[in-house]
Amino acid sequence: MIVRGWWVGALAAASLLGGCGFLSTEEDEGVCTGTIGGAPVELRLRAGRSSYRLDDLNDDALFRLRYDDDAGNEVDVDVGRIDTYGLPVVAEESPLFAGAPPWIVAWEERALAPTAGTLLLSYITDYDVEGRFTYELGGDDRLVCDFQLSRPMPTSGSSDSDWD
């Protein structure tokens, strides 16, 4: 039906232009809380600066996480690479650096120099990931960072419609 086709097309166009939130890539959420230099901090995940995708060659999950606050404190995970095929069935907190399990392929922090850390993935699919990592920064300084990243599901490029 022509009216239905127009409605679906208008909805898809509005979604791609940011009119609808369900296809938005700006829905990332996250916060780091703890202490840096002995002072309490709360850093927020920067909208549009973090990313999550699956590598086309091996299905590794690739993360980039950017947190900051108004005082200039930053957490920049440049490379977080997780072997999705090697993930354990039961989610458990795992070391990020020394003693990391083989499913944590890489984790590189640019802004800080953590002395130790852990990672817990509570949920991971092709389009969504949720988890928490911690950084031990030396002395009593420590950060606990939560993240939730979502990406839109791909839309069909064909003119055929499943609605008919």
Quick summary:
This protein has about 160 residues and is mainly β. Helix content is about 10%, strand content about 45%.
What features would you describe in this structure?
By secondary structure, the protein is mainly β. The chain is built from 1 helix and 10 strands; from the N terminus they run αββββββββββ. It has one helix at residues 2-16; strands spanning 29-36, 39-45, 51-54, 61-68, 74-82, 94-95, 104-109, 116-124, 128-136, 142-150. Strands 1, 2, 3, 4, 5, 6, 7, 8, 9 and 10 form a 10-stranded antiparallel beta sheet that branches. Strand 1 and strand 2 form a beta hairpin. It is globular.
Can you tag this structure with a few keywords?
about 160 residues; globular; 1 helix; mainly beta; disordered N terminus; disordered C terminus; 10-stranded antiparallel beta sheet
What is the CA-CA span between the terminal residues? 8 Å
Shape: globular
Please mark out the parts with pLDDT under 50 across 5 or more consecutive residues, or reply none.
1-25, 158-164
Strand/helix succession: HEEEEEEEEEE
SSE class: mainly beta
Proportion in β-strands: 35-45%
Number of helical segments with 4 or more residues: 1
Please, what is the average pLDDT? Answer: 81
Query: From the structure provided, what is the oligomeric state, counting identical versus distinct chains?
Result: single chain
Percentage of residues assigned to helices: under 10%
Radius of gyration (Å): 19 Å
